[in-house]
């Protein structure tokens, strides 16, 4: 583990990821969700008390428990492999051989450097190699990998890799356009900027196919 705090701060401020996989410990699921909620509840209580908040106030009494449940059951629920959606695929009986695009999939994630929201849209496409996947499954895959402390580049790669495995083809692409509240609401406080990341596999590395995909999603960014 890197001990240099100045270097660690630089990584966080510049949203640098040191791994293509989420840094989850091997013992992450030794204890139950209920035990995690109890532990996090106490930690949140400690944070709020340290900040000087009065937890006897009716408005704040339930906050530690609400935050703990939200962390475990909702916004970080994608860390648990038991919640991974089953990516059921089917034979491409229609013999559809063109690009299939699912665009404007809403992304709600959390920046792993400041634990602030990442909000945007994912655009996902694939070209069938004999198998197709249900449209809602594409949304669920995006949601699953988004619901964890994330870096947008990693999230984009994970979505593509999961679909490549499920569909048995390299011909998958994903573009995410999102706002990071760690940029928009703190630090530089630039409320207008957004971040665009992309991952292109197989035929999408070809400029003509890639351009067709970008035309479908009406994204002006050049790659």
In short:
Its EC number is 3.5.4.16. Pathway: Cofactor biosynthesis; 7,8-dihydroneopterin triphosphate biosynthesis; 7,8-dihydroneopterin triphosphate from GTP: step 1/1. This protein is an alpha+beta fold.
Describe this structure in words.
The protein is α+β, with helices and mostly antiparallel strands. The protein has 2 domains: 29-74, GTP Cyclohydrolase I, Chain A, domain 1 (Orthogonal Bundle); 83-218, GTP Cyclohydrolase I, domain 2. Helix content is 37%, strand content 21%. The protein is built from 7 helices and 7 strands; from the N terminus they run H-H-H-E-E-E-E-H-E-H-E-H-E-H. It has helices at 5-13, 33-50, 63-75, 135-146, 152-167, 181-184, 207-217; strands at 89-91, 99-111, 117-127, 131-133, 149-150, 172-180, 195-200. A 5-stranded mixed sheet has the order 5-2-3-6-7. A two-stranded antiparallel sheet has the order 1-4. The protein starts with a helix and ends in a 6-residue tail after the last helix. The mean pLDDT is 90. Pathway: Cofactor biosynthesis; 7,8-dihydroneopterin triphosphate biosynthesis; 7,8-dihydroneopterin triphosphate from GTP: step 1/1. Pfam families: GTP_cyclohydroI.
